[in-house]
Amino acid sequence: MRLAARDIRKHRGRAALVVLLIGLPLLLISGGGTFAFTKDVNGAEGITRTMGSSQALITSTGDFGGDALTQSVDAGSWGSGFSDPASSLQFPGKPKHPNAHDIQQVTGGSVLPVSKTLHRVRVGDRQVNANFLGIDGRKQAYDGMASLSSGHWPTNAHEVLVSRAGAAHGIPTNGTLTIVYGDGHQTRLTVVGRVETPNAEDLVTLPTSDATNWLLERGDPVRWPEVKHLNRYGLAVASREVIHHPAQAEADPVTDEMNYSPVPPAVWVLLGIGLVIVIALLAGPAFAASGSRHRRALAQLASNGATKRQLRKYVLAQALLLGALAALLSIGLGAVLGAIAAKLYGHWSPTTATPGPVELRWGWGIVVFAVAVVASLIAAFVPAIAASRVNLVAVLRGHVSAAKVRVGWPILGLVIAVAGGAILTATLVSSGINAQDLSPGLMGGTIVGTVALFAGTLMTAPWLLTRLGLIARHLPLPFRVAARDVSRQRGRAVATVGAILATVAALTTLSIAFASSDRASSDAYQPSLPAGEALVTVMQGGTTEATSAAAIVRHAVPDATVVPLRTVRARSNALADAEIIAATPEQLARIFRLDTRDIAVLQSGRALLPAGAPRSITTTIRLVASGRGGATLPAYRSTLKTFESMPTKDGAYRTYRSGVAAAALVSTHTADRLPGGSAVGRLLVRAPDGISASAQQQIDERLTEGSYLYVERGYDSVGAWLYWLIGGVFGLLVLVATLASTALSNAESRADSATLASLGAPASLRRKIAGANAAVVGLFGAVLGLAVGAVAGIAVSNPVSLVTNQNSHHTVTAIPWLQLLVVAIGVPLLAAALAALATRGRVPMTRRVT
């Protein structure tokens, strides 16, 4: 250890390079993890912003009479389909809408209301959506849900506080505000100060009378058995006690039904193993070059009696010290940078929830530190073995020959790689959607397959490099020299190839996994309307509201065609009170793709039924309007099974529905003759060039509350920016590894450069050779990395795509070739250009002293 420490102090540049290679991925992991954990507010960190100083936040999930609930530990998700409906309980008096008094009867203590509503605030000629938080900040129970910055807390229903988020949305921070409600009436509120809202609500007022959330104040905590009891009343309970002490809740089997991870655990295992391999192989070039540069020092140690074991310990001791140093510096610096980034994000993004306190995961830090040290030792293992086999006489004479590739070694590597890929693929494919459950067999197969795939491929690299040297005569001079040098110095080249291989393979695996998940989501997307069309829903369903909405649309999109869709007020019991839509026959034909016979039926005054309508309906349907009598209407069946603006895709998410669907169709003329007539409930909008985002925002800001606009833009992929982010991170690692390897190679090849210079080689040729060296090694490693990553990525795409869309009966594999090729080809070429530019024109000559 003393010799290793002395050597590190003596060769600070090389030590810094090793620290960079080992520490760069750790810096990214530490910084990214700290940012994510700090930005994400978990249940325990969000207690005060959610429930103040009370014991629990209780939420009524709807009108009483539903099934009992099953909820997650922190009530972040709940559902009624997981519980036995017979287990439901009723409040005393059986109220339809439970209020604070009803809640208090089943919980005890004091119950205080919390209202969360969305209304529109008039700002000039616009109407801005604003989230209202209704609390009484004068009471201690609400402490932490909002903090007063200036002014005073509201004392009546006509006073309001504006938050930083509200100001960012353009809401005035003083004077009065006009609130526009869906029924048309308006209210003026007086701004009495500024407030900070951790959950980024725009405005703070007193609670409203129709609150569905309540704070529970009492001395006794709400434990998990009581939470389950209250679930039987249809109440979701976020309990301070349960969040702080979740063991009993997490042990409850019913909570597993509410837990869902979009990433199967097997994928996390694969990524963890890949991380160890990437760190180990990134450090490989530095240790390989270190062993080459210190052959003479090692030979001198051997000549003074050092044993092979001592030589191995000498090299491994350097790896231990450098790995620990790199890990400490990188993890510490990454944590600081991640925390700063999270705080800056909260400052620059006032419309999002405030990040939580700086969260340092010490356990994860220790794990990453251990991974870095172990990876460093792994990286130094092969150079340590080579150091113990140094030929004393040859090294001291300056004659070092490249080791020969053993016969059968590449064949064994190929067998191991194929076996590893088969094991990994079989393990993940056979797991399917059950990859959510990480069994020992699944974990073992993933680990063994991943290690074998990487190790086997790397075993073939020396033989492939010799083949590369043999075909070098077909290359231009700089590449010919570089290829032969790489072939001759295989120890250093294999280490660099391994670093690039691991990085590109990790990039390829992640990219294929994300692309496959994104493609599965795209396949599961059910359009509501034809692409580019829009639908304005008029909640009040009246002529005045519809006319106003149509005028707003035409003002924003002058060339738009607006089709009013009327809803018949009369209903048919045979159609289960489903909606009957009226429009002109031509408009209905375009919306629902009707044929000429269907159009003729509508023009004749009959009702058009889908082929899937109840068989009890033959040639007529009976329609009745409440208090306005009834009428019998002739009916005819279409050949279409259903009337939907967009047909349902196979394998689509079940929650997706067509934007416009009808149980029956009639013409506008026919609807006017029915009892109760009809009312415009929606406007279908079409424009030749579609509806731009700015036009959509303009329409949204002018529609009255309760009316809203939907524009069909197809599936919105979030993958593009993510691919480039991943590509940028791993591309940086490839660039650093290639440049570091080239720098070490140039340092070791000074004698060769001097020889070329003495023979008259110009500086431009030496620069081209340095660039060609980086290009050859980089491209060679990238090609191997693409092959390995493709195998792992295709294997991972199976469980990932099934978990993304459980309705699908097939898996999806998508490969983002553009992003991969940019990194695999573009980054090595960039490294080659940088290496050529960084090569010195003058070669340092050594004066021999006699």
UniProtKB/TrEMBL annotation:
Record-level GO cellular component terms: plasma membrane
One Gene Ontology MF term: transmembrane transporter activity
Alphabetical list of InterPro entries matching this protein: ABC3_permease_C, Macrolide_Exporter_MacB
Protein topology in the membrane: Multi-pass membrane protein
UniProtKB keywords: Cell membrane, Membrane, Transmembrane, Transmembrane helix
Domain ABC3 transporter permease C-terminal: 272-391, 725-840
Main location group: membrane
Subcellular location: Cell membrane
Membrane-crossing residue ranges in chain numbering: 266-288, 319-342, 362-386, 407-429, 441-465, 493-515, 721-740, 774-797, 817-838
Signal peptide: none
A Pfam entry, by short name: FtsX
Family recorded in the similarity comment: Belongs to the ABC-4 integral membrane protein family.
Protein name: ABC3 transporter permease C-terminal domain-containing protein
Organism name: Flexivirga endophytica
Organism placement in taxonomy: Bacteria, Bacillati, Actinomycetota, Actinomycetes, Micrococcales
